Amino acid sequence: MAKEQKVDRQVFDEVMVPCYAPMQMIPVRGEGSRVWDQDGREYIDFAGGIAVSCLGHCQPVMVSALTEQAGKLWHLSNVMTNEPALRLARLLTEHSFADKVFFANSGAEANEAALKLARRYAADQFGPEKSEIIAFHQGFHGRTFFTVTVGGQTAYSDGFGPKPGDVTHLAYNDLEGLAAHISDRTCAVMMEPLQGEGGIISPTSEFVQGVRELCDKYRALLIFDEVQTGNGRTGSFYAYQDLGVEPDILSTAKSLGAGFPIGAMLTTDSLAKHLKVGTHGSTYGGNPLACAVAEAVVGEVTKPEVLAGVKEREHWFRDALMAINAKYPIFDEVRGKGLLLGAALNSEWQGRARDILVAAGEEGLLVLVAGANVVRFTPSLVISREEFDCGMTRFEQAVAKLYLS
């Protein structure tokens, strides 16, 4: 056997495309809400792989599902189906509004399928002129060229040449603005039922209800991007289930596989029939390994005690963050729902969210940002009280050092 090459952070700079700027440490092992780097240093994980690791690291049910399926069947093609995919699709329809499921590998691909379905439905039913897609400023829907164009952040979409056309961006939570613009040309409105990358912005009840009503009035489809909010993240299996509205199409990914890549587009019978054989596809979509893991994840996340625990843990975070803020006042508010939370910096600390992320890392805590002014927390949905307390102690230490420096 060849001698194993040393792998350190410098190798990234030598061989990886520089579109990321990863931390200097390299994690090599994880368990629960803890990870350890190459030097054996422990970190508490409040980031969860950006809302992915919903059951923590190396959760036994997930490991068992993966290893069992690995001994049976890894890959076929969509010329055939497979048992894990069928069982998972059934689970997703049982726990949502949907009748039909399309599997992909990521949130971006799930959103690509959703947008293509909306355009195809409108063309079939009403003609090619009904093609406008309305989305919202600061939204995020993925990194394919179509989804990054629909996402409302030009920093991610500019600089790649002509963009897909007939996409309009409006202000989130501005129902009057939407009502003034939407028309019979609109084929779909795409929105996150809680904006994640855009700063952890919750929709008002009036806005969500109004969007649904306007879509119905103008025969436009309502697409909910639940890539980040779904699979228990907000305390319901999907966030829409607490909002009193149902979408026509829903995308899900991230914590669906809890770390194993998988995405899905969910919709109704009447819409699904417009994606006839050959109109869309995915080589790895519905992969048996991915679906077996996701089936185990959904089985865990949908347990009432897990969903109730998300709401309990939200209070842990809110109470602890407010206690820290009472000592070191750097936050204006804590936004979000469930375990998709953002601590928004006050006027004196604008632009310093990354400073806090770096300081937390130095204390042995992993957190995220949502823009320059919001520290984001998306931990495991089942993080233990001990792990939480340890992590929050480290967060306070990081905040204190910055505040007192």
UniProtKB/TrEMBL annotation:
Q: What is this protein called?
A: Acetylornithine aminotransferase
Its gene?
argD
Among the GO biological process terms of this entry, one is: L-arginine biosynthetic process
Lineage summary: Bacteria, Pseudomonadati, Pseudomonadota, Gammaproteobacteria, Vibrionales
Broad class of enzyme this protein falls into: transferase
GO molecular function list:
identical protein binding; N2-acetyl-L-ornithine:2-oxoglutarate 5-aminotransferase activity; pyridoxal phosphate binding
**Main location class:** cytoplasm
Identify the GO cellular component terms for this protein.
Answer: cytoplasm
Q: Which family does it belong to?
A: Belongs to the class-III pyridoxal-phosphate-dependent aminotransferase family. ArgD subfamily.
Question: Pathway it acts in?
Answer: Amino-acid biosynthesis; L-arginine biosynthesis; N(2)-acetyl-L-ornithine from L-glutamate: step 4/4
Q: What is its EC number?
A: 2.6.1.11
Query: What does the record's cofactor remark say about binding?
Result: Binds 1 pyridoxal phosphate per subunit.
Q: Where in the cell is it found?
A: Cytoplasm
PANTHER family for this protein: AMINOTRANSFERASE CLASS III, SUCCINYLORNITHINE TRANSAMINASE
Q: Which residues bind pyridoxal 5'-phosphate?
A: G107, A108, F140, D225, E226, V227, Q228, T283
User: Subunit notes for this chain?
Assistant: Homodimer.
Cofactor section? pyridoxal 5'-phosphate
More info: May also have succinyldiaminopimelate aminotransferase activity, thus carrying out the corresponding step in lysine biosynthesis.
Residues noted as binding N(2)-acetyl-L-ornithine in the record, renumbered to the chain: R143, S282
Q: Which UniProt keywords apply?
A: Amino-acid biosynthesis, Aminotransferase, Arginine biosynthesis, Cytoplasm, Pyridoxal phosphate, Transferase
Q: Which reaction does it catalyse?
A: N(2)-acetyl-L-ornithine + 2-oxoglutarate = N-acetyl-L-glutamate 5-semialdehyde + L-glutamate
Q: Which residues carry this modification: N6-(pyridoxal phosphate)lysine?
A: K254
| Segment forming the signal sequence | none
Protein source organism = Photobacterium aquae
